[in-house]
Structures are given as C-alpha cells and as structure tokens.
Amino acid sequence: MASIDLRSDTVTLPSTAMREAIFTAELGDDVFGEDPTVNRLEEMAAERMGKERGLFVASGTMANSVCVLTHCRRGEEVILGDKSHMFLNESGSMSAVGGVHPHTVLNQADGTMRPEDIEAAIRGNKVHLPRTRLICLENTHNWCSGAALSAEYTDSVAELAKRHGLLVHLDGARIFNAAIALGVDVKELTRGVDSVSFCFSKGLSAPVGSVVCGSEDFIAEARRTRKVLGGGMRQAGIIAAAGIVALEEMVERLAEDHVNARRLAEGIAQIDGLSIDVAAVQTNIIYFDLVSGRLSVEEFLKRLEEKGIKLLCIGRPARFRMVTHYGIGAEDIDVAVAGLREVMKES
Ligand code: TLP
Prior knowledge:
By secondary structure, the protein is α/β, with parallel strands linked by helices. The chain contains 14 helices and 13 strands. The strands form three sheets. It has a seven-stranded mixed β-sheet, sandwiched between helices. Strands 9-10-13-12 form a four-stranded antiparallel β-sheet. The chain has a two-stranded parallel sheet with strand order 1-11. Ligand TLP is lined by residues 8, 10, 59-61, 85, 89, 138, 142, 171, 173, 199, 201, 210.
C-alpha cells in the first residue's frame, strides 16, 4: 500500500532533475569560497531575496541560529512570537548556543504580533535589563495555520524596529509559499528586514539546505558564525546543486500544494467528529481537531496509518497537522479524505 505522508513538506524527495544536478555538480572547497555550485546558489538566492549576499547553511535551524548569533551578543534580547518555530522548536538554540535571551510576544492567529505588543516588549536602557537587539518574524507562520504575513505588515515591523534602533530577522523557511499565496514578488516580503533565511528542503523538495541572505557586511560576519557552529561544509555543491534546481523549477508549483491543502481542509470540514477552520488555510499547512470522544489520539493515528495515511499530532487534547507537498497529488487528497471519513465512521 502506498503511503500518503502528510506529516511535513520536509519528507519530500528530490526530483530527477535534482538527482542529475547532484551527480554532475562542479565542486570545490566552500570554506575557501571555491565551490562554484555553492557560489552560484548563494548569488541566485540573494538576488531572489533582494539582498546583497547569501550564505548556504545545513538547515533552517542553523540558518536562524547563524542570524541570531551574528546580530546579537551574549545577554542581548530577541523579541519573537510565542508560537514561533525559533522559540518552540529549535531546542532553545539561541540561549543554548548564543547566550541570547528570548522575549516572547503573543502571536495572533494570523501569525502576526501586534505592533503595540512588540513596542511594549522593547526594554529601556537600564543596567538591570537585557538589551533588546532583534525582532524575529516568521513567514509563512508554521504554527499559525501556515499564515502568510503581508508585505505591509512586514514593512510596518521593520519601520518600528528602525525607530527603536533594532534589527529584524525573518525566518522565511517557507517564504515562497507566502509570496505565491499573496501573489507578490518575494522581495516585497523581505525588503525591510536585515536578514532572511529560507529552506530548500521543505516545499521546494531539495534534500538538504537553507540559505541566509543579507548585506555584504552581515554575510561576512555570518560566515564566521557558521564556522563557529561547525557549518563549513567543504564540497557542499553536492547538495547546493539541488537547491539551484529548487529555485529554478519548484517555486511556481507551490500553488498546487495550496490548492491541495484547501481541498483537504474542505474535505475534513465535511467529516463528523473533526473540526477545522477552512478559512485559515492560505498555504500548504492545515490544522484540525479530533472532537469526537469516541476515538483516542493513538487509535486515530493507528487506524489512519493502517490505511497508509501519515500525519502529526501536535497538540492537546487532539490537534493534528497535515502539510501538502510535491509528493502529494490531488488523488492522494481524495484518498486521505476518504480514509479519514472511514476511520471516523468506523469509530
Ligand atoms: N519545521 C519542521 C519541524 O521542525 C516542525 C516542520 O515539519 O514544519 N523555521 C520554520 C518556520 C520551520 O517550520 C522549520 C522546520 C525550521 C525553521 C527549521 O528547519 P530545519 O528542520 O531545516 O532545521
């Protein structure tokens, strides 16, 4: 039985074109700056993001860590959403590795933080207080239904930051999903921020890698931070090659994932015992709740797994996430919805 794996878009496998590009990639030592494939990918990424330079790193978590540790010194503070991936899902890396202090602000359901809440979280210049240095945004916002943050919102936070002498980092792991959903050029979503990171290994389907983009000076420092974290990868062109194909061939197709996510959400909305906010689905991530008391979380997951359907349980009492991606077609959505319906009917 084929598996319909909706746990994450990180499960995507490289396309044939990526495997061919990996096979034929021109390589060199990237720590010496001599890997032509990495250099090309960094240039392409920076151009797409509207920034001066790019830096290839191993993962989205490393990208965010490199940015925070480059922007901030020990004891300084970062303002970020209480549902942000950087706060919840990166093993506390900014404090564990960088001695940087996270200060959370409530994330609204649409992934934003209210400007007045951000402003209230900025510290005064007192000897007792950590110094606020950086504000972090996330677009799309993973735990807020994959919501896309608008260019206007991002600009307004950048303007607020500037007014207070602060920097802005954008965790744009899925920034292309946001650009496609909003129908804007990705540069509009990044123009105000000091650094942006995005992932090749999520919806863009490459096997490994993320990139950090920013000014020439920032990236020069970030390169040192990457080395500190053990992220100098030598002949990294072997994986960067797939990132080039990702940028060239995989961005526009993200629209299909959004259509499929919407179709999945609409299907789930018709099933008794499941509850979903269909209107919240803007990109490729959907959340729903099991509200029927007839089935435990474990039983629900087990019965779906028996039908080849995989998803993540991400919250109590019974909240689930499904993510559409390159490995999921419209027919898989119909099979998944039918599977969910059967499991609920049998319970
Ligand atoms: N997200 C993963 C899990 O860690 C939850 C997923 O399946 O969605 N920023 C955002 C917004 C992310 O969603 C993720 C990964 C990362 C950063 C980290 O990327 P990696 O996994 O490459 O370190």
